[in-house]
Amino acid sequence: MTRLFCLLIAALALALPSLAKPELKPTEDLKSFYRAGEKYTLHMEYKDPDGYALKSATFHDRSGDGEPNFPAKELSGNTESGLKLTWEINSFAKGDHKSFFEVENEKGLKTRYPSNESDSYVFVVESLVDKWIVMGVGLLICIFMLPFLVYLIARSTNKQGNPSSAARIGLILGIFAALALFIFQFVSWYSPLVLVLGGIAALFVLVVVLTRR
Hints:
Blueprint: H1 2-19, E1 23-26, E2 33-35, E3 40-47, E4 54-60, E5 69-71, E6 74-78, E7 82-89, E8 95-105, E9 110-113, E10 121-126, H2 128-157, H3 163-186, H4 192-211
Parallel strand pairs: 2-10
Antiparallel strand pairs: 1-3, 3-7, 4-5, 4-8, 6-7, 8-9, 8-10
Helix pairs in contact: 2-3, 3-4
């Protein structure tokens, strides 16, 4: 009886590795933001407890600009201990992306990341030129249209008030709005020093507006 039990345990021990599923995961945190026109390298690791060789490894990119597929460029290691996969992307299309990684071993078994087929690797690609265009339009609105709107509202609600004070309040609000837009647009692009310099410039303009008679 004891011998039979030991043989059963040994058989289970041999069978368990084959029950384990292959795993595909990133070797570092994947970004949620990319810059248009720049090159990027993506890294993943694939493990197969059964040690089957890899047949293909593909990054399926999905965006409004199309659905290109990128095969892995570099492979190092082995599938049993961990195979390193590398994708080199020359440039991502601008906009929102919902993508996934997929590998297939020599037995035809496919492994995906994210593992759930209903999930995707979501990220956004932004253009610096587009951001500066938005910033330019926003600056015109904040410095000209917003102060003028505030002035009209102030004058319509209080016709006896000081016109210059109403215009000054509108300009102050416009300066703060422009600063907030600048930070929102470029917080992921520029260093904190640039944002601080933008804040100093806004503060300087504010002081000029407050000290003018």
